[in-house]
Amino acid sequence: MKMLGILKHSIRYCRRPVAANLQSTIGSTNSNKRTLDGQLDLRCTHVRHVHDDAKRVAEHESVIFRQMFDGETYTYTYLLGCPETRAAILIDPVYEMVDRDVKVAEEMELDIIYGLNTHVHADHVTGTGKLKELLPRFKSVISKSSGAKADIHLEDGAEFKFGNQCIKCLSTPGHTGGCMTYVLPEHAMAFTGDALLIRACGRTDFQEGDSGKLYESVWRKIFTLPNHFYLYPGHDYRGFSRTTVAEEKKFNPRLTLDKEKFVQFMKELDLAYPKLIDKSLPANLKCGEISKEAILGSEDVLSHMGNH
Ligand SMILES: [Fe+2]
């Protein structure tokens, strides 16, 4: 019975990392030559890639992926695109960084049609409201349980598509009541928002935060993904960019505690009140639809060194 469960799990999730797919694509081109010691010489392919335009390079990727950073709030925004249809999404766009995100997408000939928030952020204003103004087809997306305004609301287990790409939505409450982790099973990637950070996790002392729930969410939803899956967090304050399920199960100093100790640890964190929470929460509950003056008029926005 247990074996059957493991087998089903393996079938559900792709076991071949993106890099392997890319390598096999490159290796199968006819132009490759063998060197004297019989190894495939990929230099010609590499040179051709360097000189190709962004779109053609992207065609070799099974999913187009860019990780972008906001140095003011230490927030990661992720651009994901379908290589065939050019449909694209942004995960957790930041209001002040929307122009950068749109420019990158234009350069890559991608059409951003959705902006997905992992949760109602307390440390920055979401860019989804501004994106709706700039891009006529754009729609905002968030979990139903977040209670926030959006064009599309998602529930646990929902599947969400852009182009030929599919995202599985996992409800992972605890940091906030409406946190969602977005998984791309075909590409062994998961975007955890603030539920799980690299060697850390989001705080649980406001916005329906609940340490016990967070512990259960991580262990039941995120740590049950295959070990090789890459995890991409909502923030990082120490220069890390990604991790894996296996790494965090072994090395996350908080989540490797037992549940009781984890709850106690979170209780004793004694973190400062987030500087932007009074401005960002009301704005984010309305999809970030707030006047530019109201946001840029806040000194907090410019001086904020976020602690999600
Ligand atoms: Fe957060």
UniProtKB/TrEMBL annotation:
One Pfam family linked to the record: Lactamase_B
Protein name: Metallo-beta-lactamase domain-containing protein
The organism of origin for this protein: Clavelina lepadiformis
UniProtKB keywords: Metal-binding
InterPro entries: Metallo-B-lactamas, Mito_Persulfide_Diox, POD-like_MBL-fold, RibonucZ/Hydroxyglut_hydro
PANTHER family: PERSULFIDE DIOXYGENASE ETHE1, PERSULFIDE DIOXYGENASE ETHE1, MITOCHONDRIAL
Annotated ranges, domain Metallo-beta-lactamase: 74-235
